[in-house]
Amino acid sequence: MTKTLHILTTEKYNDAVLDVLEKLPTTQRVCYLTCNKTVLATKEGMWKRKIDASRYVFIDTVSPLLFKNAPRIDNCTYVNRIDNFAKLAELIITVVKMNSSNVLVIDSLSTLIAYGDTQSTNELISQIMSFLEKTNTDIIIFALQPDKDHAVVKQTMTMVDKTITPKRFFW
Fold this sequence. Notes:
With about 170 residues, the chain is α/β, with parallel strands linked by helices.
């Protein structure tokens, strides 16, 4: 099991996320939690980079906030309330189990921080990590550079094997 936290600059965020996804082995089944863009926007970025989205299942927390009737997408589960972290954790675990995912991608920890207090966000990450360790499932977490000193990001750094930061931050 590999646990990686990527701290990314705001300016290069979307490209950097896609760079990481491109490097995932094509044999892996991925559960992708998207908290800052719709599943359609996520899949469009993947399509432009020729990343095969058919091996992904998505959990979309954004579309229900933007659309009264979110478009029905195969391999996507919608979350109506991102701020209910107990239910979100249950859903993530269920989707990972049901789809036998090898990798969970959380995009992004920064958005989760915006919706929850420090304690509940730390508990969410801890609960997910505990489950993933039992199932030997990898996790990739993305966070924005401005949040690198937030207590949740610092706590997450202690739970991962590796934290990757940009070589140079641009202000």
